[in-house]
Design a protein that fits this description.
- 45% of the residues lie in helices and 17% in strands.
- The protein has 251 residues and is an alpha/beta fold.
- The protein has a single domain (4-189, 220-245), classed as NAD(P)-binding Rossmann-like Domain (Rossmann fold, 3-Layer(aba) Sandwich), CATH 3.40.50.720.
- Helix 1 runs parallel beside helix 2, helix 4 (107-128) packs parallel to helix 5 (154-174) and helix 6 (193-200) packs across helix 7 (202-210).
- The mean pLDDT is 95.
Length: 251
């Protein structure tokens, strides 16, 4: 039976790369987007062009109240598009970057980071667990910034650190259902993250390239295929792990 992967925040960046990599490996995809409906539609069309099934659903991962209605829309999409009552893989990817020194971080910035990157991951996963098939996989996205420091990312890195701890607890509690849960921690990647700083600012790009063993900043396609491989049956014994995918950043 074809596996179905739900990837949050998949209209662009790492989420898009992951959704496309899953499709290339023969999987079907449910992707979520917050505001970029046209971009999400384009990803769906790319996946369909590969002969796979895909559907895009709107979701704000920072709004817990939206999760129950989303789950009902997902149930309908699973039934109508895939002929299934469950899906197999959940990739908690959606997020944003907010850079501010500790002395300058506002409560609103802090709360948004917590709501999207931690509270959202916790309660979206909780809400969707009845729809995740036994023997499934969950991947939570963290960051290389939980291991190395870079000024301005204290709050962001702290909530990603919370996700890494949460991953281990998920793996323990969901193991009885045969569900493996892992964290993938990308290094600096050339995406829209943080206003596209790594991608568009040559000085910042060089800073990260110089601190990376392979001599460059990462690309979305350095991450998406790795996540897709982690979801495959070949990685069935990988569980409760933090896997950094950074090209050797900060070693």
């Amino acid at each position: 039976m074809t596996k179905i992967t739900l990837v949050t925040g998949a209209s662009r960046g790492l989420g898009r790369a992951t959704a496309l990599a899953v499709a290339r490996q023969g999987g079907d995809v449910v992707l979520t987007f917050q505001s970029r409906a046209d971009d999400a539609k384009a990803v769906v069309q790319e996946i369909q062009a590969m002969g796979r099934k895909a559907v895009a659903l709107p979701l704000d991962t920072g709004d817990v109240a939206a999760f129950a209605p989303f789950a009902e829309r997902l149930r309908t999409a699973l039934r109508d598009t895939f002929g299934r009552e469950t899906f197999d893989h959940l990739v908690n990817n959606a997020g944003h970057g907010d850079c501010a020194l500790i002395g300058e971080t506002t409560e609103a910035q802090f709360d948004r980071l917590v709501n999207v990157h931690f509270k959202g991951v916790y309660f979206l996963t909780q809400t969707l667990l009845p729809l995740v098939a036994d023997g499934g996989r969950i991947v939570n996205l963290s960051s290389g910034l939980t291991r190395v420091t870079f000024p301005g990312y204290a709050a962001y890195a702290a909530v990603k650190g919370a996700v890494e701890v949460l991953t281990r607890y998920m793996a323990k509690e969901l193991g009885r259902r045969g569900i493996a849960v892992n964290t993938v921690a990308p290094g600096a990647i050339e995406t829209d993250f943080g206003g596209g700083a790594v991608r568009d600012n040559r000085e910042i790009n060089k800073v990260f390239a110089d601190m990376t063993a392979l001599g460059r900043a990462g690309l979305p396609d350095d991450i998406g295929p790795m996540i897709a491989s982690l979801l495959s049956g070949d990685a069935r014994w990988v569980n409760a792990q933090r896997i950094e995918v950074s090209g050797g950043q900060g070693i």
